[in-house]
Design goal:
Blueprint (H helix, E strand, L loop, with lengths): L1 E3 L2 H6 L4 E4 L3 E2 L2 H11 L4 H4 L1 H5 L10 H11 L4 E3 L5 E12 L8 E14 L2 E12 L7 E10 L1
Parallel strand pairs: 1-4
Antiparallel strand pairs: 2-6, 3-6, 5-8, 6-7, 7-8
Length: 151
């Protein structure tokens, strides 16, 4: 984890790779819970028997489940000692799903601090996340996520 004293230190690290998280397993329980939360019960996600005969040989995590893991990974990559009063998910500039995450796979996140810009609402922090799949050459996804840090 990269620890910064304040937003000024964060801004000075613009362009740097901030490191990787630990690996986390994506199990069927997590996939099923996400299916229940979103109402997306497509067989490729929840029917292990049918999915075993399908194109990936197993169930796969929803792309949006893999993307939602950024909320889990981000605080494990960056910490700021003098925290803003709040940090808000401000959106995404770009997301590409490059490879499905099959059940039982382990993923981790690598982050580059792409940009830090002050605006009238606070500081807009842009981080490029690359969610890797253990043992695979291609990542699961690459996403440019924005967070608004309000002083």
């Amino acid at each position: 984890m990269r620890v910064f004293a304040d937003i000024n230190e964060v801004a000075a690290a613009k362009g740097e790779h901030l490191g990787h998280t630990e690996w986390i397993e994506i199990d069927q329980d997590r996939i099923n819970l996400f299916a229940d939360a979103t109402g997306d019960h497509q067989w490729i996600h929840i029917d292990a028997e049918r999915a075993a005969a399908g194109p990936f040989g197993a169930t796969i995590a929803h792309g949006y489940l893999s993307l939602s893991m950024l909320a889990y990974f981000a605080p494990r990559i960056v910490s700021v000692t003098k925290k803003p009063s709040m940090s808000i998910n401000y959106g995404l500039n770009r997301v590409r799903f490059l490879q499905p995450v099959t059940v039982g796979s382990r993923i981790r996140d690598g982050v580059v601090l792409s940009d830090v810009q002050e605006n009238s609402k606070g500081v807009l922090v842009t981080m490029t996340h690359t969610v890797e799949i253990e043992g695979k050459e291609r990542p699961a996804l690459v996403a440019e996520a924005l967070g608004l840090w309000v002083p």
